[in-house]
Known about the structure:
Strand 4 (115-124), helix 5 (133-147) and strand 5 form a beta-alpha-beta unit. The relative contact order is 0.17. The chain has helices spanning 12-15, 53-57, 68-81, 110-113, 133-147, 162-166; strands at 39-43, 84-91, 96-107, 115-124, 150-154. The protein contains 6 helices and 5 strands; from the N terminus they run αβααββαβαβα. It has a 5-stranded mixed beta sheet, sandwiched between helices. The chain is of the alpha+beta class. The structure holds coenzyme A. It is a peripheral membrane protein. Residues 39-184 form the N-acetyltransferase domain. GO terms for molecular function: glucosamine 6-phosphate N-acetyltransferase activity. Keywords: Acyltransferase, Endosome, Golgi apparatus, Membrane, Transferase.
Amino acid sequence: MIPDETPLFDPQLLEEIDWSQNTVSFRPPISPVHPGEGLILRPLCTADINRGFYKVLGQLTKVGDVTAEDFIKKFEHMKKTKDYFVTVVEDLNLGQIVATATLIVEHKFIRGCAKRGRIEEVVVSDECRGKQLGKLLLSVLTLLSKKLDCYKVTLECKPKNVAFYEKFGYTASDETYMQCRFFD
Ligand SMILES: CC(C)(COP(=O)(O)OP(=O)(O)OC[C@H]1O[C@@H](n2cnc3c(N)ncnc32)[C@H](O)[C@@H]1OP(=O)(O)O)[C@@H](O)C(=O)NCCC(=O)NCCS
């Protein structure tokens, strides 16, 4: 198994996002197709394991010991389901991933067999924070969930990040997030 450039999902989905529906202001203006000088916003590919993808994720949580084989197997599983939209920003000059966020589409029997989006693993590498990349990823994945006909999109976050997500129209729900953790 050799890491390659095959995208996890169709890159056109990102290119076709109707950016006029974006509700957040960007100064200077950036967009999914123009994320900034020397940057590209695109689906994850397995070659990103050699471009510091895990280094970025490691700034969010424990990533564990993952071999290239483990990574490729997981990628292939996600690709097959067509429900995982792991999106990255690459700095083309450095050949490094500098930000990532994931949209997962969950299928329901309720609400007329609707779909629900979940946003997970939002992280911008510390040296690139404050350059609007977090905002760009959140706007893009929120619009993508709408385009994919999700009836809602949700995420869990720390209280200190609530104000960040409110920018995109997310509101705190009166439900309590509960978990049963089996290992760390
Ligand atoms: C949260 C995070 C993704 C934001 O990304 P970023 O690239 O630094 O932020 P951006 O430059 O895109 O956005 C900047 C805007 O968001 C605001 N902002 C950034 N982080 C914020 C926070 N934690 N709370 C409130 N507002 C925040 C800024 O004030 C700025 O507002 P403005 O556009 O009105 O001036 C980034 O700081 C990060 O990766 N943090 C560590 C991992 C993490 O906590 N992830 C979220 C998991 S729920």
